[in-house]
Design brief:
The protein is an all-alpha fold. The protein contains 20 helices and no strands.
Length: 424
């Protein structure tokens, strides 16, 4: 879709596949289909545009009831004159919804793992907020602010998630927050619902490791796989998902349920996963991806600290985590960490940020004194370095924030295992 010259063929193939899906599956893909059409419309040939027009017309007619149920989240087609008839019908249905329903729908769209859907939602949210600014302020003043807090939290999360890769999304999110204005923290609480997991056994207890891998798959790796448009990156992430589901034995429990008296931690955790995540992982329960064995992956011995003012935030984080992943302590860590090392360099930065506190803590608790001191030195170097230019100050700010996450996990572990932090 992103490659110029292939977009006609890609969208034609997409619509051909949509045409043979059943109703519930089509409903899941309507938002993405409309967002892709709007995003790439101007680059398509007139023949492809006409085919898309016919396909969307058939989709709206064949699955009318399903689409009506989720009409509030469907991207607008207003920017395409040829689609004006379809857009008028969709907008007519949306007009009956209350403003708070629209805001919650925008929040759901902003949480989607697909950047196209997020970007299109923001393009529509900007004019919607401008048109309904008085309603937003009145809702806040009258303490009916739950939906305002929800959309503000979604905008903040969107900025954080897409900042490393998509400056346009960050710009649009900032515009939306500027239109909403400054919220009174005593009256509006936009708290983050991001979950955290403490691995108290230092990756020795099987049930804890399975739970940790499952959360990483749900929150980090599966969304990264869905959102990447690079086929090489998809291949590496696919390999890692394949190896992780085998490590957790999800491939065995997904095909044969054990007796209720013998339910394993793996089976319980697989059933606990959201259906959308299981659907993504299912093909990798029996896949046969492999990597070129001639590719050198293990790093050479590295001197510490890794951080310098010449480093960028991305390169520093990826390099440091990559080095530590090859020093995991314990059987489970030694099996899982090298697999994850395959998707550190050049892949979604959220993977490195998620792994940092757990990998560093594993080494601090189970490694040598020198390895623990290296991690302490890395953290202290970030804290003590002073930047002069704006670029250096921004890099230090980003590195300091991710350092805090790692230090927090280590501090919590020190409460459970006194002295494990070794003064870092």
């Amino acid at each position: 879709m992103e490659q110029e010259g292939l977009q006609d063929a890609a969208l034609s193939a997409w619509l051909a596949l949509i045409a043979i899906l059943e109703g519930p599956d089509v409903a899941e893909l309507v938002d993405q289909t409309f967002a892709l059409v709007v995003q790439h419309w101007s680059h398509l040939s007139s023949e492809t545009q006409q085919n898309i027009y016919n396909s969307i017309g058939d989709m709206l007619k064949k699955h009318n009831n399903l689409i009506r149920e989720k009409v509030v989240t469907i991207p607008s087609l207003a920017s395409i004159p040829l689609m004006s008839k379809f857009d008028a019908e969709i907008q007519r249905l949306k007009e009956h919804e209350r403003p708070e329903t629209h805001l919650r729908a925008f929040s759901r769209r902003l949480s989607d793992e697909n950047a196209s859907i997020v970007a299109q939602a923001l393009r529509e949210l900007v004019p919607w907020l401008e048109e309904n600014q008085n309603l937003i302020h009145e809702a806040t003043a009258n303490e009916q602010q739950e939906h305002v807090a929800e959309i503000f939290r979604s905008l903040l999360d969107t900025c954080t998630k897409h900042a490393p890769e998509n400056s346009k999304i960050v710009e649009l999110s900032s515009r939306c927050m500027g239109i909403i204005g400054c919220l009174d923290p005593n009256r509006v609480e936009a708290t983050s619902s991001k979950r955290q997991l403490l691995v108290l056994s230092n990756f020795e207890k099987a049930s804890e490791v399975i739970d940790w891998v499952a959360i990483m798959l749900e929150d980090i790796i599966v969304p990264a796989f869905r959102s990447t448009t690079n086929t090489t990156a998809q291949g590496f992430i696919a390999y890692v998902m394949q190896e992780l589901v085998r490590f957790c034995e999800f491939n065995e429990v997904a095909t044969a349920r054990p007796r209720s008296s013998q339910t394993s931690p793996a089976h319980a955790r697989w059933v606990d996963m959201p259906e959308s995540v299981r659907n993504t992982l299912t093909p990798f329960l029996s896949s046969r991806y492999f990597l070129n064995s001639n590719t050198k992956v293990a790093p050479d011995s590295r001197s510490y600290p890794v951080f310098t003012l010449d480093s960028t935030y991305k390169s520093w984080l990826r390099t440091w985590v990559y080095d530590m992943l090859w020093k995991g302590k314990g059987d489970n860590a030694e099996m899982v960490f090298p697999v994850l090392a395959r998707i550190i360099r050049g892949h979604d930065l959220s993977i490195s940020a998620f792994l940092l506190p757990y990998v560093s803590l594993n080494i601090v608790i189970g490694g040598t004194q020198q390895e623990a001191e290296n991690i302490a030195q890395e953290l202290l170097t970030v804290l003590s370095t002073v930047g002069t230019s704006d670029l250096e100050k921004e890099t230090l700010r980003q590195c300091s924030e991710v350092r805090k996450a790692s230090q927090t996990v280590m501090y919590r572990a020190d409460c459970v295992i006194p002295g494990c932090f070794l003064g870092a």
